[in-house]
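Bug #2210: token dump truncated for Biotin-dependent carboxyltransferase family protein?
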Amino acid sequence: MKRELAELTVIKTGPGTSIQDLGRIGFSGFGVPVSGAMDAFAMKWVNYLLGSSENAAVIETLQPGLKLQFNAPTKICVGGALAKIKLNENLISLDKVIPVESGDILEIGAQTLGAINYIGIEGGFQTDEILGSRSFYQGITSISQLSKGNNLSYFKGKSSSITKGAKVKISRDYLEDEVLEVYKGPEWRFLDTESKEALNSSTFTLSKLLNRMAFQIEELVPNLLQEMATAPVYPGTVQLTSGGKLIVLMKDAQVTGGYPRVLQLPEKSIAQLSQKRAGSKFRFKIK
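Reproduced locally. Full output below:
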């Protein structure tokens, strides 16, 4: 039987709020970025607690200030960064399934640890699925981020559904961990010894130049590498320019690039880095 759809309305939001799932896999040959949740660990966790599919679409918000109003009952779960979350002005817990009723208002407030929150909903948000994904991306989906007045569809639940059960805890140590495990990239072998040592032992600072496409790093790594013909790149690829600039590609990154690929972050390290703010310090641990 087909489930009845309801909607919520975005009352308020800052820039960068979007719908994300695990992304578009298998289309890079056509120039289509993967996209998907920056912190896939937190996204999967809220879906797990809700009993939804691992790939169910969630709201990703990159800063506080999101305010949503529901027009029908459902269940939600908020995860990711430590933040002040309110439902109808009452504080609610992260990582807990919360029943909501028609007219309820959810607010994401100040974040005290981390930089991204995920709002999951039972069954996932039912936005348009394009190329196997609901993830927003400019030029593929009709909008690239949520704005005031947007409506989002979800499956209508039963009224006054009370959630009971054991309280679960999640470790947020990864939000504070300054060590990012990485692998050697295809062009690592062309680096001189001094450049390799700098990448392996230096403490780096996250620049203010960061978005879903790429994070830049303030410190320079002098090197003798030359730019090359374009080559495949992926989320987590660390590029090193001839001028010494380090660029970490994130989930909305292009699929090819001309800078040497010196390191590659696995999914766990992408999640760690995505939750860091401008000015945060970190180090690479090369596997």
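Output looks complete on our side. The longest strand covers residues 105-121. Marking as cannot-reproduce; reopen if the truncation happens again.
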